[in-house]
Design brief:
Layout (H helix, E strand, L loop, with lengths): L4 H9 L2 E6 L2 H4 L19 H4 L2 H6 L1 H16 L5 H12 L2 E6 L5 H5 L4 E3 L2 E8 L8 E2 L19 E5 L8 H9 L5 E5 L11 H7 L3 E6 L11 E4 L2 H11 L3
Parallel strand pairs: 1-2, 1-7, 2-3, 7-8, 8-9
Antiparallel strand pairs: 4-5, 4-6
The structure holds ligand BJW and zinc ion.
The site of zinc ion has 8 residues, from loops.
Length: about 250
């Protein structure tokens, strides 16, 4: 595998590195990407139509069944070489921020420390009634009751993820925007379709970062970045990481 020398030079010299990941990073771990064709039971639903407050208001049980199915898939998954290469990279970099859109927590499991989960987590729940209870973690598979309820008010609980039309968590979004002030911004395994996360690479470029994309396919970001490399993240990331090790 050959990498453009300009990428390797920039990576070696970079003091501040920011990486944005999407579902493609977890594909090799067996977690379906968001826009993959849904399988079996879910083939007739568009994920974009399930991941909305409107869908949940209309059919909370159906939406919870979809999340329960995904929790059971993710529970069996382990971090792959792409997640692990990012952990190694963080250890060597003077400043490293990983922004992930993934809700599978595989970066947490791999051991990344400076991690911003901008779309939440499949393993967290919150109160749909917003009774004031804070978000809680529930890693049981299967869930004890479906749909689950809020431990404080006994009303309906919701998955602790960010749906279309909802605001991203303020602290994470602000920190992600600050991390656009970097030397290298790498976007990996994301379709670059969902905002505001998809806008971060443009912001980094505007602020002078060298920008690169690693993805199996061409995305709307490909033409904007300084360098687009096509291939699987679980091969590209460990390979890059090895080449920039002193
Ligand atoms: C591989 C690979 C391998 C595969 N190796 N690569 C500006 C312009 C237009 C629209 C908007 C805008 N600003 C906001 C919007 C609206 C909306 C939006 O972006 N819509 C667009 C779709 C048009 N955004 C929102 O609503 C956001 N909220 C917001 O902006 O609030 C502000 C506001 C609030 C109230 C009023 C007014 C304003 C919220 C977005 C939340 C997204 N949530 C989801 C669901 C999370 C929960 C769940 O998982 O169920 O997040 S949607 C879904 O997409 C999920 C993902 O994190 C996200 C991104 O997907 P990702 O990771 O890119 O996955 P895929 O499947 O799309 O792509 C996989 C890629 O991997 C592919 O490219 C493959 O090629 C590649 N690949 N194998 C390398 N081995
Ligand atoms: Zn409640």
């Amino acid at each position: 595998m050959t990498f453009p020398p300009e990428l390797l030079r920039c990576l070696v010299a970079a003091q501040r590195v920011t990486v944005l990941t999407g579902a493609g990073v977890s594909a090799e771990s067996g977690v379906p990407t968001f826009r993959d064709a849904q399988t079996g039971l879910w083939a007739k639903f568009k994920p974009e139509e399930l991941a909305t407050p409107t869908a949940f208001r209309r059919e909370p049980r159906l939406v919870w069944e979809w999340y329960a199915w995904r929790r059971q898939l993710v529970a069996k998954a382990n971090p792959n070489p792409a997640h692990l290469a990012l952990v190694e990279w963080e250890k060597r970099a003077s400043s490293f921020t990983l922004i992930t859109q993934n809700v599978d927590d595989l970066h947490v499991q791999a051991g990344t420390e400076n991690l911003l989960r901008v779309h939440g987590s499949l393993w967290e729940l919150s109160c749909w009634q917003a009774c004031g209870a804070s978000t809680w973690r529930d890693e049981s598979v299967p869930l004890q009751t479906l749909p689950p309820s809020c431990p404080a008010c006994r009303g309906l609980a919701r998955p602790g993820v960010v749906w279309f039309g909802e605001s991203l968590p303020t602290r994470e979004l602000e920190a992600a925007a600050a991390a656009c002030d970097c030397d290298v911004f790498l976007t990996v395994g994301t379709s670059a379709l969902v905002y505001p996360a998809a806008g971060l690479v443009h912001e980094a470029k505007r602020r002078g970062a060298f920008t690169a994309e690693l993805n199996l396919e061409v995305t709307p970001a490909s033409a904007e970045v300084d360098l687009a490399i096509h291939g699987p993240a679980d091969e590209l990331l460990p390979n890059i990481s090895r080449r920039i090790t002193p």
